[in-house]
Amino acid sequence: MRRILLMRHAKSSWKESAVADLERPLNRRGRESAPRMGKWMREQQLAVDYCLCSPSVRTQETFRLWQEAYETPVELRLVSDLYCGSPDDIVNVLQTVQDRYHTVLVLAHNPGLEMLAERWSGEWRKFRTAAVAVFSADDLEHWADLKLNKNRPLLEFQFPKGLEED
Question: Which domains does the chain show, CATH number per domain?
Answer without folding.
Answer: 3-10+25-162 (3.40.50.1240)
